[in-house]
Design a protein that fits this description.
With 646 residues, the chain is an alpha+beta fold. The protein has 25 helices and 7 strands. The strands form 2 sheets. It has a 5-stranded mixed beta sheet with strand order 2-4-5-7-6. Strand 4 and strand 5 form a beta hairpin. It is globular and about 75 Å long.
């Protein structure tokens, strides 16, 4: 759990500060709703709706979202960028706590654009911090850390200790997520001391939860229990049902780890009641998982199975693939204990399939290896690559051994069951297994080919440049300015390489993605491009008639994303545009993606086509579509992708 700070600067003009602090949560909400019914102007309603959105988040996230949407509509009519930016920021917070991270990021990005217009630095860097929180919850630790450090530098320079404290807390949580427990404990204990000195009990409780998690992972159970209970006391005094429910779940997890199943059940059931009241669907499923484990440990397998199935249904509704895989793994021994080997084998195989996706820990290790390799000379880089290849081979070997063991157990269970069936059913079962293996191998081969080409086309070329640049540094005179420029160049290529690596792994992990998820990825890329290329205006338009839940195979998604990247990079490199527009629409049964700039343009017959145009056309062919490039000297360039909507 990481802390979240509201960078609003707006308070109700009709309620004094003393009244706000004196009221309980329910009294405050009732008071705000009463004031809303009396508000006579749009501005007054917007101010109250902003507060209602914020204060309803720990009580009912669905209600907070409703108030936030209403506020945005009212704020739009005021023609006040500051108030509209605050409305988007409040709604982004509600979506983030709800776990709908795509919507959270969209709203924060809208708020950031408006706050750049107003020029309020505190709110600008506050929104950058909140975007870091969204990235952190989406397990994009590198993007989260980059946002946090940028904002922390500003708040430390401006003497804003409170906002700096919130960011340090979140940086400590990133170290916790990366299992760097000593560093995480050091940072978070400093944060806790600061919050105690400020009598900031509520945010102290948030930090205590993280410290309790560290103690639990270090198996210091007594310290963990003491820390969790202190946090729970504060949340109950604050009448914060949401954080109380998550703390009950942390205690249930702790007691399960100690074999105290009955105690774990009592805390989990309390957590379920509160999570249901505030509409925290994802947390409700997590608590169900803990409760099912408690019953499993007590050997009440029918009850355990019932609760696991409920949790699995809820995780599927949240598209929480990591948690779904955990459910498969935990349910397999339950079915085995119930004498249902077919079901046990089914969930074991399902877990094996899902578990083939790279874990976040492997991604972090890979990016860490890449960053270290960039700073070494060519010989050291070659040695590092060899070591990485050896580690990958070892990982594959160990994975194969584990898979062989799992398949061996499954085979034994199937063999025992098949003896009770007739020959026809036995043959049908073998055919089903064979078809499943063929399908799995085909999917794996497709993913390997896509990833191999992306790594070769994008990251391989950049790594070659970086290694060459480092080698050439030996021949420069030791002039500080020259070396600094060269190292900056290498650092920029390094960041781009890591970004493209994460894009590739994102596509590999997703399996299937919605058009809304791909649109969010493209929008994020355009925002980064806008920040890094001053003076160029980027726009992204999506036809409202296009179904946002339309699904694409992940390999198709990354192909479309790469075409957008290549087209924009070519425009920035050769066309010197002032505006770039990316638009998506549906023409009959075709998807039409257009990248248009107002740059210098060119006559295609007069230039030598490079790898960029070739790669874009090749990707379009693999999508079953075609790529058209229309350009005229002095009149800009339009790149259009037409592909069938499958």
């Amino acid at each position: 759990m990481h802390s979240f700070c509201r960078f609003s600067g707006i308070c109700l003009f009709f309620l004094c500060i003393q009244m706000l602090f004196a009221q309980t949560s329910s009294e405050l909400l009732d008071s705000l709703k009463t004031e809303l019914s009396k508000a006579s102007t749009a501005k007054a309603r917007s101010l109250i709706l902003s507060e209602l959105t914020w204060y309803y988040v720990p009580v009912s996230q669905d209600t907070a979202i409703l108030y936030g949407k209403e506020n945005i509509e009212i704020a739009k009519s005021l023609d006040d960028p500051a108030m509209l930016g605050q409305a988007y920021s409040d709604l982004g917070y509600a979506y983030m706590e709800k776990g709908e991270l795509i919507e959270a990021r969209k709203n924060y990005q809208e708020a950031l654009v408006l706050r750049y217009q107003t020029g309020d630095s505190t709110k600008i860097y506050g929104t950058i911090t909140n975007l870091g929180s969204v990235y952190q919850r989406d397990f994009q630790s590198d993007s989260a850390m980059a946002n946090y450090l940028k904002a922390l530098n500003f708040f430390e320079r401006s003497g804003n200790d409170r906002n700096a404290d919130f960011i340090r807390n979140n940086i400590g949580v990133i170290h916790l997520e990366m299992r760097n427990y000593p560093k995480a404990l050091e940072i978070l204990q400093e944060v806790a001391e600061y919050r105690k000195a400020q009598d900031d009990e509520y945010n102290l409780a948030l930090t205590l939860i993280n410290i309790g998690n560290i103690y639990k992972n270090l198996k210091e159970f007594e310290n963990a229990e003491k820390t969790y209970l202190e946090a729970l006391r504060i949340f109950q005094e604050e009448e914060d049902d949401y954080n109380s429910s998550t703390t009950y779940n942390n205690l249930a997890t702790l007691y399960n780890a100690q074999g105290k199943s009955e105690l774990a059940i009592s805390y989990a059931e309390k957590g379920l009641l509160l999570a249901d009241q505030v509409g925290a669907d994802y947390d409700y499923a997590l608590i169900e998982s803990n409760l099912a484990k408690s019953y499993h440990d007590l050997k009440d397998y029918p009850k355990s199975r019932e609760i696991y199935l409920n949790a699995l249904t809820h995780f599927k509704a949240q598209n929480a693939e990591d948690d779904i895989a955990s459910m498969y793994l935990l349910m397999s021994p339950v079915y085995a204990a119930l004498g249902m080997p077919d079901s046990s084998a089914y969930y074991t195989e399902a877990y094996s399939d899902l578990n083939k996706k790279l874990t976040e820990q492997e991604i972090q290790q890979l990016t860490s290896d890449l960053e270290a390799r960039y700073k070494s000379e060519q010989k050291d880089a070659a040695i590092s690559r060899q070591q990485l290849e050896l580690r990958n081979k070892n990982f594959q070997l160990y994975g194969s051994l584990v898979l062989a063991l799992v398949l061996g157990v499954v085979g034994y269970l199937l063999y025992s069951q098949q003896k009770l069936k007739n020959r026809q059913l036995k043959q049908a079962g073998k055919l089903k297994v064979a078809l499943g293996q063929i399908e799995t191998q085909n999917k794996l081969q497709e993913q390997r080919m896509l990833i191999s080409r992306d790594l070769h086309d994008n990251i391989g070329a950049q790594l070659t440049f970086i290694i060459s640049a480092i080698e050439n540094l030996k021949y420069f005179d030791p002039i500080k300015d020259t070396l600094t420029h060269r190292y900056d160049s290498i650092a920029n290529f390094t960041k781009q390489t890591i970004t493209e690596l994460r894009d590739t792994i994102w596509a590999m992990n997703s399996g299937h993605i919605t058009w809304e998820q791909l649109s969010a990825r493209i929008s994020d890329y355009l925002q980064r491009a806008g920040i890094s290329t001053l003076g160029i205006h980027f726009e992204f338009e999506v036809d409202k008639s296009l179904d946002p839940n339309f699904h694409l195979v992940s390999s198709e998604g990354i192909q479309i994303y790469r075409i957008v990247q290549e087209a924009i990079q070519n425009s920035l490199k050769y066309a010197y545009p002032s505006q770039i527009l990316v638009s998506v629409s549906q023409v009959d049964n075709l998807l039409q993606l257009t990248i248009k700039d107002d740059g210098t343009g060119f006559e295609e017959s007069e230039i030598k086509a490079g790898n960029g145009l070739y790669n874009m056309r090749k990707r379009a062919e693999e999508l079953g579509g075609k790529l058209e490039v229309l350009s005229q000297a002095g009149k800009g360039t339009t790149v259009t992708l037409l592909m069938p909507k499958k």
